[in-house]
Amino acid sequence: MKAPAFSTDMTITQLGTALSSYVREKWSQILENDLEEFQALFPEYEDATYGIFTDRLLEDILKDVAQAGFTSAAEPGKDDYVIAGFLLFSNSLEKETWGPPGYDKRVFWVVVQNSRKEKIGTLLFDLPHSHDEFSVPEAPSFFPLSTVEGREIRSEIRKRNNK
């Protein structure tokens, strides 16, 4: 699979679309190759296993994003868990009641800045998963938002996940 080309003049929508396309193509390969390992880790590491999965899914592509000049505008806290060098656990919400039993979702948000340190928007990253066993029942996805304000971001996450 060929990684998308990123350029310094991309909009948040273009960035989100490119990342979602990549994830849709790549997530099942990661599961197929590493499922037994994830299943073995899950009883001990629980949700942290999804961090390992997400690292493997996004690490390479997010290096390309960084090389194009895009970074997170947020600094990780002292005890924050950083996933793939881009997602901060402290900038996420768990949605446990949006689907059938055993079908949960964590939504991360990243305020993205360009190489000139201008905030261009926010990327939401939806990670469907289970707390009962290691399972990623559908492709994770990115969704772009034009806002960079925390209250508006959290409001949009709640709206999107209550549908």
UniProtKB/TrEMBL annotation:
What's the protein name? Answer: Uncharacterized protein
UniProt-listed InterPro entries: DUF6022
Pfam families, per database record: DUF6022
